[in-house]
Amino acid sequence: MKKIYLLLEITCLIVIFTAVAKNKELYKVGVGDVLRISVLGHEELTSVVTVNPDGTIMFPYAGIIQIKGHTLAEIKEKIISKLSPDYIKYPEVVIHLEETKSKKFYVYGEVKNPGVYNLTDKMTVLKAVSMAGGYTAYANTRKVKILRPREDKSGYKEININIEDMVKNPGSRQDVVIEDEDIIVVMEK
User: Which residue has the higher pLDDT, 7 or 68?
Assistant: First the structure.
């Protein structure tokens, strides 16, 4: 029986980490993030840019573009729309996220909007689940996990939380503060 539970848990972790990789394309760019932007056939336009504190970047021929809070696909469309009418007929823009300076966390499992979210100061598990649209009807609020990266990058530390108990008895347990790269998993009933 223990082997079955172990196999089930390993399968869940594989699904979660696959979802994390898939959702990188849904990542919303933040202040300090570094992007490499290229226009195929126009090497002179290749730029490595850092998102300014006001959420903008400067790109040749396109000028200042507001990109904070947008996905790479949305930024690509913004650049294409600025280049295509006057400078390049059919620009082929490629954008790579070189470095993330903005902090993020992930929410998966039985929530309405699983995905990647930007981390703000004093973000707690309850607030994170709320940002993800709340629980589905199948959520087990007694079994919520935080997978927190170990400092030595050797894997994840698992923190188990009973949110139902926390809500019923506010003084019994403190709402855990989320850290950069935490993965919150709301298990199924």
Answer: 68
Say if strands 63-66 and 183-188 run parallel, antiparallel, or are unpaired: unpaired
Question: How many independent structural domains does the chain possess?
Answer: 2
Residue 20 lies in a domain: no
> Mean pLDDT in the chain?
85
Q: Domain range for residue 84?
A: 34-99
What is the pTM (predicted TM-score) of this model?
A: 0.54
**Are 77 and 84 contacting, i.e. CB atoms less than 8 angstroms apart?**
no
Helix (H) or strand (E) holding 21: helix 2-22
Q: Please provide the DSSP assignment of 80-128 as one string.
A: HHHHTTTT-SS--EEEEEEE--S-EEEEEESBSS-EEEE--TT-BHHHH
Torsion (CA) 41, 46, 52, 56 in degrees, nearest 10: -10
117 and 62 in a common domain: no
28 pLDDT tier (thresholds 50, 70, 90): confident
Judge if 85 and 153 occupy the same domain. Answer: no
